[in-house]
Amino acid sequence: MKNPTIDHGKSFDWGRTSEGYAQYRDIYPPEFYRRLTENGLCTAGQRVLDLGTGTGVLPRNLYPYGASFVGVDSSRNQINQAIKLSRAAGMAIDYRCMPAEQIEFPDASFDTVTACQCLVYFDHAVLAPKLARVLRDGGYLAFLYMAWLSEEDPIAGQSEALILKYNPAWTGCGETRHPIQIPTPYLDYFTVEKAEVFDLAVPFTRESWNGRIQTCRGIGAALSEPEIGQFDAEHRKLLQEIAPERFDILHYAAVTILRKIK
Questions:
Q1: 3-state secondary structure of 101
Q2: Residue 262: pLDDT band with limits 50, 70, 90
Q3: 205: phi > 0 → left, psi -120 to 50 → alpha, else beta; which?
Q4: CA 177 → CA 30, 216, 251, 252, distances in Å?
């Protein structure tokens, strides 16, 4: 994938991170998911479409609440991992390999659409009317996001500085708390029902934090194998120096829920 507005046009491929993604990116705390279920989303009796599903993190964690899920992603490697993990857990989740902009489900197929950690990658002018079409009247669209706070958490800050050393083009740095900015095409079809921003302390070990960092867009999805190996060695050494075996990383999360205009 290559986008001039992301990483200054440097190409990246999430499929290269799929095995590590499956192991290290299922990190959202229970409170993150409760922001959906407590608002009546992704619960029993609902049919949910998860965009940019990756390894199926959102459908797999929300599966116990009883909704029926379809997950779509443009990366075949990500979808293969999602299928593998869901089958191993005995979860009947339908996964499709396709870009979000190419969904062709029947009208009013879904009660809810979710999109976690992927809003920046979409062509919103194409996607917005398609989501309005596949959602029932009064259906919900939920955008979710979580990021570490490098200016406030010293371990996150030093890890982020190392990412930038190896990939100065990476634009995923310097996150601060803010609501999700809803692109204007969605406002022709949806109204904003609720927008929340809240802090989360996410637990890691040195190993799992190293894995989380390596599977970010700036490293595992973008660098060569030799560069990734060099980063791994340097990051592990850094963590030995600055981090205990177990620690929390301060993140902020944002959830915005929109409702389809009838």
A1: helix
A2: confident
A3: beta
A4: 20, 19, 9, 6
CA dist., res. 56 & res. 52, Å (int):
9
The Cα-based distances of 69 to 75, 88, 111, 114, 131 in angstroms read 18, 16, 11, 10, 15
Which backbone phi and psi does 45 adopt, to 5 degrees?
90, -10
Q: What is the pLDDT of residues 94-132, one digit of tens each?
A: 999 999 999 999 999 999 999 999 999 999 999 999 999
171: left (phi over 0), alpha (psi -120 to 50) or beta: alpha
Distance, CA of 116 to CA of 145 (rounded, Å): 6
Q: Express as a percent the part of the chain with pLDDT over 70.
A: 100
Condensed to tens digits (0 to 9), the pLDDT of residues 17-44 reads 999 999 999 999 999 999 999 999 999 9
115: amino acid identity, one letter: A
Please report, for residues 19, 43, 125, 167, 239, the alpha-carbon distance to residue 173 in angstroms, rounded to integers and kept in the order given. 23, 34, 26, 11, 19
Residues 83-115 as b/e (b if ≥16 CB within 10 A, e otherwise) read bebbeeeeeebebebebbeebebeeebbbbbbb
Buried b / exposed e over 135-168, threshold 16 CB at 10 Å, is bbeebbbbbbbbbbbbeebebbbbbbebbeebbe
Q: Decide the pairing of beta strands 190-205 and 94-97.
A: unpaired
| pLDDT exceeds cutoff 90 at 219 | yes
- Contact at 8 Å (CB) between 179 and 256? yes
